[in-house]
Amino acid sequence: MEDIKFVIITGLSGAGRTLALRVFEDHGYFCVDNLPPALIPTFAELCRESRKRINKIALVIDIRGGGFFDSLFESLKTMRDTGYPYKILFLEASDEVLIKRFKESRRRHPLAPEGRIVEGIISERKKMAKLKEEADCIIDTSYKTPAQLKEAIVRNFIEPKREEPLLINVVSFGFKQGIPLDADLVFDVRFIPNPFYVDELRPLSGEDPEVRDYVMKWPESKQFLEKLHDMVEFLIPYYIKEGKSQLVIAIGCTGGRHRSIAIANELSAQLKAAHHKVIVDHRDVNKDRSEASES
């Protein structure tokens, strides 16, 4: 069973077992919540027989099983004796955080259905102490966000895959047509001198070299672009860390034909030069020119 990954998720009630199970499920694991521990060896054998279909398994085992939980260590011994490798993920949190989570969810602690939450937590810690000692990985979720817990689980249990680079969409637009609904970042470049008021530039767009040169000749344009590029480069690693796969940067002027296009093209060129994956979309460049006036 060397090619089968078998993970047992356990730990304290309220520490994040349900979220952890979802992380494994999202990565293609066959997941079972609250399987009676005595059935683990039998379940493992069924997975072995179905190895072409089920080769990544994650089980949540905890004290909700009541008296069944006491058979867990015997089942784990059977797994070791019969050559079924497994890993144990143990989730815990501080008493203060667990109490707060139970109060917020208005749930009773499974070991103190008629008593105080703190009594249930103390009792559960005692019952889980031996299992915690055998855990391959212990994660304290007290101050972890869901994204941080996911990152910790992936780092410790799921083989890293080659991640697709963050896709950056740079969209130019006209405020007269409305801000793009899917924009993550919106920048207004209407402070830049307007090519619309230059007769020979008015019929052109920001795609034309003459308009680009006019827009970029101003010191404020150069300084804005420099600061914008620096900020986007600063943000990119944090968006990736949070699991974002696409970033939409919207750059707007009045009509979306001149200034926004020139700045969007310049920013895109700089990002591409830094080896980012970039797509440029000039949303309003083909709008009726009367609608795109004063761009």
From TrEMBL:
The keyword Nucleotide-binding applies. Pfam families: PapZ_C, RapZ-like_N. InterPro entries: P-loop_NTPase (IPR027417), RapZ-like (IPR005337), RapZ-like_N (IPR053930), RapZ_C (IPR053931). The keyword Glycoprotein does not apply. Residues 4-157 form the RapZ-like N-terminal domain. Keywords: ATP-binding, GTP-binding, Nucleotide-binding. GTP binds at residues 62-65. Residues 167-285 form the RapZ C-terminal domain. ATP binds at residues 11-18. It comes from the Bacteria. GO terms for molecular function: ATP binding; GTP binding. NCBIfam families: PRK05416.1. This is RNase adapter RapZ. It comes from Biomaibacter acetigenes. The gene is rapZ.
